[in-house]
């Protein structure tokens, strides 16, 4: 059987190909727009935490912390003169990115496969693990002791998800901010709170007279990375290149020592390194 392609069909195919090529071209323009806009504005808008020392917090009116120093170094490596910090809580991080309010998020956010369905991530710039913080005296020595206990966590975080898996017998009380969660622990409204161990150390260090103690071992792995909008590969490449450079020059280590060194009050032992690729 012989088939004859009619002129109208050929015209349709050619038109369809033209639309596809135009679409690809448009996607390329969109893909490069974020980085171009950042350089045009000479400003990088970063969503950051203000309630998660030593990663991100306020020192007077200024933003401070490990993540604040990392993003300042990344911006400099990208050739961007200014950083505008936009404070977010955990529930606001992804929406701030999707709405275009910020260019990227560096706010104690763990890479997860679920989140990667909505946004993209840079290379990890840090790794931590989840623990519990209690107010003494307490019967809780690890997450295994939380059956029937009230445990505070932060909404829309891996901390909430992890607790539902490892401590199904615990009664979870979910909070919007670390500040509210810590106040509940101080007031005896929860038996323990849980998030990344270093954030818990920061809470303990900043409440020296509260009787707060970290208990148990880490029960998760939390690779922290910079979140960016999808289909912005050149922006992601620029961020990854900057992260690799500050690792190779030793600046990452200098920033780490500033916040986690021997005199910092933190017990973190670094086993993490930024993944680097050959030139």
Describe this structure in words.
The protein is α/β, with parallel strands linked by helices and 279 residues long. Helix content is 38%, strand content 23%. It contains 8 helices and 13 strands. The protein has a 5-stranded mixed beta sheet. The chain has a 5-stranded mixed beta sheet with strand order 10-9-11-8-12, with helices on both faces. A 3-stranded antiparallel beta sheet has the order 2-3-4. The termini are far apart.
Summarize the structure.
Helices cover 38% and strands 23% of the residues. The chain is an alpha/beta fold and 279 residues long.
Order of helices and strands: HEEEEHEHEEEEHEHEHEEHH
**Overall geometry:** globular
- Which residue ranges are poorly predicted, with pLDDT under 50 across at least 5 consecutive positions? 1-8, 23-31
Rg of Cα set: 23 Å
Let me know the number of strands.
13
C-alpha end-to-end distance: 57 Å
Helix content: 25-40%
Largest beta-sheet details: 5 strands, mixed
Structural class: alpha/beta
How many helices?
8
Mean pLDDT across every amino acid position: 90
β-strand amount: 15-25%
Strand order of the largest sheet: 5-1-6-13-7
